[in-house]
Amino acid sequence: MAQRAEEENQQRLSYGEQLQQAEQRSRDREFQIAQLEANVQNLDTQLSELSTVTSPYAGTIRRIKWLGQSDNRLQVEITLAVGGPSDDSASELFSSPGTGGSRE
Known about the structure:
Layout: H1 2-49, E1 60-70, E2 73-82, E3 92-97, E4 102-103
Antiparallel strand pairs: 1-2, 2-3, 3-4
């Protein structure tokens, strides 16, 4: 009789430990999910801060020349082909390094 009571007590203790371990795993998983959500939110914020460049000319990009980078600013020279897409010889080429533009 005492042995059976001892076995039941051991089973209850074992079950309690398993339950605690499952709860700990659940808390760890929730913490990891919260960290991932914070990382995603941080990346979304960084993506929204990226700037885009638009051209005042309708045309085709002919060349992109890398000039450099300082901090988060990229410096490139973009050469556009402006004009009729079917006649490349009649197209005018515009190149804009950084802030100002110059004709090629």
